[in-house]
Amino acid sequence: MKLTQAVVDQWLESAWRDGYAKGVDGRDDLPDFASLKPEPPKTEKSSFEEISKLPFKPDKCCARILKDGWGIQCTRSFMDGCVFCKTHQKKFDGLEEGLDVPFGRFNEERPTHSKDKKEGNKIAWADTKPSKKGKAPSKSLKVGEMRDFLSTRIPNENFKGLKKADIRDLYEKEKEKMASDSSSSSSDEESSEKESSDGNVSVINYSNSSGENYEVEIHHHPSDITSFEPEPEPEPEPEPEPEPEPEPETEAVDSSPVDSPNTISEYKALFKKLNIDPEGLKGKRDYKLKHEEYLKELEDQTESLSGSDSDSDDLEEDKSNYQAFDLDGVEYLEDEDTGKIYNPKHQYVGVWNDDGDDIVWSSDEFKEQHETQRD
Q: In this structure, what DSSP letter does residue 363 have?
């Protein structure tokens, strides 16, 4: 115990109390100072299991070490510019690329196999070892005895090169299998007893877990045998009469008037289908006027419009996004797909009205701007 000022004070107090008690009793002998020495406080040392559950300490080496089957963090300080202490850094530098310290790093997931080899050995963590409760003690057996037993149960290749702990686990598993096999074979033998009685006899073949085949005679009394007649085969269902083939439908020619498009893209698609030249047209209003002229000319002619829709599948997608036009001398851009109208700054100002001759403004601000910029 380290002699600190607190220990000295406690020691002196004990000597003073001893002298005071002797003075009251009338004694004057010297005290036994060794017996008055304070005892160091007893402190309970934490178990390795408790230490393994402590949080990661960033000021210590990050390597995990194995203590009594528990993985705890290395207590040494790490080197400058490294995450390991001198010992673990030296081990890490000697490893191939892709490998790590044997038990991994404390701030990472705990590995099941050692990480300092490509095919590392299985780590016997204390909380992953199989419980030995209820198993027959096998510590007194030697490795040679367990190998001799296993050679009678499984091929030698299955346990060749295994360590003593792995051989013991395999030995105990085979012992359990042998015990379960013996219990099942005894139940099979009990079920093989014959029952003798007058009547008919039927023979049933059985095989036990050891692979032995045997026969069991079952005697039936005539009164136990019930005769049965085979069920009559169901009559075949009549084949359904073949349905008459439908007559091919003839495509009807749509002679109804063409609906008025709502956007420039629809106008372009319609004009291409009707062979209308859109050159020089700007804005939805020009397209609408051109379309109305075409309809008026169509009413004056007697030409058939059949087949005007035959090439609609061959229309190519118009890749234009905006169409420039001017209204009252003010330039605008019209979205060909949505019909929305924007100013040159690409600000949305409104849409055409139903007649296509004026703009329904999105705000009074854009309407006032148009009034001030118009001719």
A: S
